Amino acid sequence: MFGSISGALSAELTGEGGALRKCPVDIFSERASMRRESQGAATGMTVSALNHVAHRMSIKIITSTMAHEFEEAYGTTKSLNDAPPATVDEIQRLTDDLPTLNDLVNDKLSGQNIKLSLRPNIVGKSGGGYIQGLFAQGTLTLFKGAFRSYGDLISTLYHEYNHAYNMIFLRRNWPTNLKLRDNIDEYLAYKAEYGYTSSTFAKSQMNYYKQLIPSNYH
Ligand SMILES: [Zn+2]
Q1: Lowest mean pLDDT among 14-18, 104-108, 111-115, 157-161
Q2: What separation in Å is there between the alpha carbon of 176 and the centre of ligand 1?
Q3: How many domains does the chain have?
Q4: Is residue 4 part of a domain?
């Protein structure tokens, strides 16, 4: 039974032209880069398939750097599956507590004046899906999808802060073609996210953007 469920989901995730593959950066300004997920079709099949994947991801997440750092910081007092905080102060504290985020945000990006905007009750929509996070014009915005769990929040936060890092330090050295720049940006953000979280979603997105960019950016 699981075989048929994961088979169907795998087809949905890896199928040609799946809407979730396309990060619709071009409908915003050049500075908009976002992380989004597919919108699940409202069928029992899809829901059970997604539950199955969520379960597999929660098993895999135990071995990730994120899970390790989270456990080092909070022991058994918090779980990555718990509902996360939704205030700027609490998210800053979470960032300080996790070495990888602390290094990126408080060290590498320190002094860059990145504004954090939280929309925990608003779904950011774009194209055929919804957005969890967005970095545009110096503001990192997190939407409802990022607040389902600590795992979602930390993944999205790290992904978007990587966009901020790319914008400030790397993007000026990239090819002039805007679409290509956006694809390199997404590839690097998902690559960093996958390296930190071991998320299968981030991995599939990383591999998608990888084949759209020159190999010297891999
Ligand atoms: Zn992104």
Answers
A1: 14-18
A2: 19
A3: 1
A4: no
